[in-house]
Specification:
The protein is of the alpha/beta class. It has helices at 17-32, 51-64, 79-92, 102-114, 185-195, 211-220, 251-256, 261-269, 283-289, 304-317, 320-332, 344-351, 358-364, 376-382, 388-399, 405-418, 423-435, 443-450, 452-460; strands at residues 4-7, 36-41, 70-74, 95-98, 143-146, 153-158, 162-167, 175-177, 200-204, 227-231, 234-235, 300-301. A three-stranded parallel sheet has the order 1-2-3, covered by helices on one side. The chain has a three-stranded antiparallel sheet with strand order 4-5-8. A two-stranded antiparallel sheet has the order 6-7.
Length: 463
Amino acid sequence: MTVRTRFAPSPTGFLHIGGARTALFSWAYARKHRGEFILRIEDTDVARSTPEAVQAILDGMNWLGLSWDEGPFYQMQRMDRYKEIIQKMLADGSAYLCYSTKEELDALREAQMQAGDKPRYDGRWRPEEGKKLPSIPAGVQPVVRFKNPKTGLVEWVDMVKGHIAISNEELDDLIIARGDGTPTYNFCVVVDDWEMGITQVIRGDDHVNNTPRQINMLKALGATIPQYAHLSMILGDDGQKLSKRHGAVSVMQYDEDGYLPEAVLNYLARLGWSHGDDEIFNMEQFCEWFDLDHITPSAAQFNTEKLNWLNSHYIKQADLANLSKDITKRLSLKGIDVGNGPNLESVIALYRERSNTLNELAAGIEYFYKTPVTDAVAAEKHLTADVMPLMKAMMLQLQSAEWTVESIHHIIEQTVVNNGLKFPKVAMPLRVMLTGNAQSPSIDAVMHLLGQQEALKRMATFF
């Protein structure tokens, strides 16, 4: 049997980290088993689903490189099929019409809660042998309910959580079509998983309570039951449930914040799954190694420091030409033209060892392409009265120097030795004059990339 997995987000918001991990694991399982990965947009919540959210999901999937083999399928385009199956279920007795009004159901719920009982539909419109149903009230549009078994257990071996059993007595008769005829979420999912031949349903554990209902409906339809794998939730750095207050609400926010998709994917892969002590691996390796046996059933905790460490690694390994394209875009958004300055790839090569994110990298190299604003605190600390004459003398030497890293370093070293100083006493003032602050890679390499004319021009502004 061909493995067929699916990712089925609801377009009521962005593709968030939890959804991205679910998509990654579903995609990887299909790739591992040379199967097929289906993208399905569950847009039956018309009031909350938006085209912008659909596009955000597609953008997030494309940015991560999680390509799908079929789809995207949209549930709203399959309404006729759902309604057709509901009619068949009504005809075969696995579903029935319920004329209970909202007021009646509210009163029933209130009475059950006051009695200390679990609120549930009491089956008053459920057809049973020898049972007389109430008279059909005028003006009430009936809902359609699934006739859930009254006895027995719904059992499955969850591929992450192990054996799970739910008593049918805990489940009431689920509404599968509203009064206006619109099929409900749980029913549409069942039909889609059945007709799309889904073999493994990999999703968040907030769906565990839906699974027994869906299994019962699949059985009623005579469908093959897929295997289920429910992934634990993701906690924030503080140990609380991951939410908007923890930072990025959208996968694409990570792009804006300067993360590489390779780093985000590598990080998500390790969020609740492991392969020995391996921390860094590409997606080809991940798909080869991936299984559901090594997913922890307990909650995974998001760790921003670890993501930053991984991102730093991938920045160091990235192709310089690709980095240059990305950094050019980030700087252009700030109105900085990298055409007016040194070779961007050379600058990035000098700076990328120091950057956790692409935004840090872009910010760090801005001064190569625009006149820097001098940090007042750094200037007061390093541009002291005893140092400035040395800087001026060195500037005069640099005017006639061969502009190589070695030559520049030699002049700085001479100044250090001739004046009985330590190297930072000379290098730090140079950094402040040329870059605006006291932090930079080797100052001789920085000066070489700035170019002789620009470096001397910047130094001259301090005299």
